Fold this sequence. Notes:
The protein is an alpha+beta fold. The chain has 17 helices and 17 strands.
Amino acid sequence: MTEFKTLRGMRDLLPEDAKMMVYVQETARKVAKLYGYKEIITPVVESYELLATKAGDEVKSRMFTFKDLGGRDVALRPEFTPSVARLVATSMRNEPKPFRIFCMGSAYRYDEPQRGRYREFWQSDFELVGTFRPEADAEILTLTDSLFQKVGLRKFGLKVGHVGILRGMLGKEKVKEKDQNAIMQLMDKKQHDDAVKLVEDAGVSKKCVEAVRELIECKGKDIVDVLNRIKELVKDYESSVAAVENLRTILELVNKSGYKIDLTVDAGFARGLEYYTGMVFEIFVPDLDIALGGGGRYDKLVELFGGEPTPAVGVAHGLDRMTLAMETQKIDFKAKEERTIIVVPIKEELKTEALKIARLLRDANMLVEVEVMGRKMTKALEDADRRKTDYAIIVGERELKEGSVVLRDLSKRDQRIVPIEKLVDEMKR
Ligand code: HAM
């Protein structure tokens, strides 16, 4: 018999991993609610053309593409933004602006598998549609901060740039859009020398090549200083200057609204996806060199799909990578969840009492298992320990006579006698 395995880059999430993933998903959903984002559900399979438009060569070449039985070119979604833009251009076109959309699910890219890089992965995606204003960009940054804070990740930082800085220069130097895209792709892959070479080959002025070379070095956490340096470098290109000022306004809004986000401005930072038109950013943690999320402004995608010109800005968080970072930062997410309880009757005859107590606790929304293997107490507790159960309620004859049970804290390994009528309150403390 063949031994079946998951396909390369695809994973099963067994209970512990699934639990962490669900915890992150629930937190993302909470953040969506807190910020007023309405959840929608879109198909996993979309037309290839929709997904490929403005995806950029990198994502495009890694799509799971196939012909369906009707001969149509289709693909598994590598991200959610095209589906949202499709909706904004069609069924949601008359929706009053702005509107906030949240979607969450699996996405597929034929990436080379490694730690934190899979072929099936999860994203939570937030899109704020219908406004050019910098408050919207700032909101996408701050909600990302809220999500990361809420799952317990402390050490993380945002790398921020603006595609308008470089595109403003290349546009004025009459570099064709196709070449601009190729340059941005190389910048995204940090192949800076090749990017500068392409800029040179595109026939731009010497001054422009020099400025691009220096721009790549322009980065740091002193936002005012970095932005001033960038502005000086691009001062001959009006739309690049406007991009710098736009970025300044967005970041000032973030800082002045009381969010303490670790921000790094990087003028040479670009993103692989081609639909971006403004601010772009990615999220990093110290122990992983891959991004935990990314996003930016895309003001032209909806009209490309036949909708009204509609500005938009959004972000997608890589949920698998977030759980990985939680593991490396040793975040005890379980402490924030409800505790798990096992009810163990000391002997056979106390089974029904155990079931009654379990029901009592479940009625109060507690997570309860009952010993069903007829094991002796020590064995049952050993098993509960192995499965990282938080509490055991031991139903014994002596205590029961006084209307009580033994409540044992399995992590602290101490126990006390609690009257059954006070059990629910005691567990809620
Ligand atoms: P993205 O940067 O391509 O942006 O993906 C967002 C996040 O998804 C990445 O930062 C990463 O955490 C996660 N991710 C991507 N590929 C993989 C993979 N192979 N394995 C594990 N995780 C992965 C977007 O998808 C845009 N749609 C974001 C956006 C929304 N821009 C505007 N609105």
